[in-house]
């Protein structure tokens, strides 16, 4: 039933995002752009001559609806979503291939400084290289085909966004539950912003990289990484991110709370070079009180030794 609820939530979020019509708004920005765009010579903008001929002569489409131009990207950065969608590229891939960071902010409309001509041209040339290849490698490419690719790309991007949101919600829930447990056991002596002073001179710090850590003085005793994503295809990538964090605290007791734990993940954790990694399934931890109690005892009793569940006589 939980998986069905997750599916319902995911579908609703994707539907609401698509209703925002970001792709349509990007196209409208291109449509109302009336300044002359000079794409010549084509090679300067990485446009294949055959692709150009197919679009402008065979299909009789305006070039700006297929090929990106630096001037238009600078004027309306959100149109990056449109051209990226035609190419079927995720944002991270665009940033890696073009060498331009911040494309995500272009499309969100949250850039702080104007886009330089150099960066705009790098991104435009990347888009034109990909779209030229797509056009010349198919015999019947049309702009309608491009729109279908765009919707598919948006769907995949939204899937990635939802995975990130799931991870953030999981992190909040675990942190809240852990804090509540420590408060109930009277382990917290003083609170600051995201820093909790516990018995025995220990600090519990809520941050990132790692998500939670316990210190005594400058020594890290326990670290916890929370990876809430449930898609199995990205499981090893999430483990890799956690391992990088754990490697900085190899002498600590390291815990991974994961939305899914695959057999491949278990094997990698067994072979961990920077100290052992103990793992817990996120859903079990949050839904099973005895499992969460076991987790807390490993931290506060076994490791930190500031809570003893058996009253002394």
Which secondary structure elements does this structure contain, and how are they paired or packed?
Layout: H1 2-19, H2 22-31, H3 49-58, H4 70-75, H5 80-87, H6 91-98, H7 103-108, H8 117-136, H9 143-184, E1 188-192, E2 195-198, E3 202-206, E4 212-216, E5 219-227, H10 235-247, E6 253-258, H11 263-270, E7 277-281, H12 282-287, H13 289-303
Parallel strand pairs: 5-6, 6-7
Antiparallel strand pairs: 1-2, 2-3, 3-4, 4-5
Question: Roughly how many Å is the radius of gyration?
Answer: 25 Å
The secondary structure category is alpha/beta
Query: Strand tally, please?
Result: 7
Measured distance between first and last alpha carbons:
46 Å
Describe the protein in words.
- This protein has 2 domains: 2-141, no CATH class; 163-303, Trna Endonuclease, Chain: A, domain 1 (3-Layer(aba) Sandwich), CATH 3.40.1350.
- The chain is 54% helix and 12% strand.
- It is built from 13 helices and 7 strands.
- It has helices at 2-19, 22-31, 49-58, 70-75, 80-87, 91-98, 103-108, 117-136, 143-184, 235-247, 263-270, 282-287, 289-303; strands at 188-192, 195-198, 202-206, 212-216, 219-227, 253-258, 277-281.
- It has a 7-stranded mixed β-sheet with strand order 1-2-3-4-5-6-7, with helices on both faces.
- The longest helix is centred in the middle third of the chain and has 42 residues, at 143-184.
- It is elongated and about 85 Å long.
- The two termini are 46 Å apart.
- The mean pLDDT is 84.
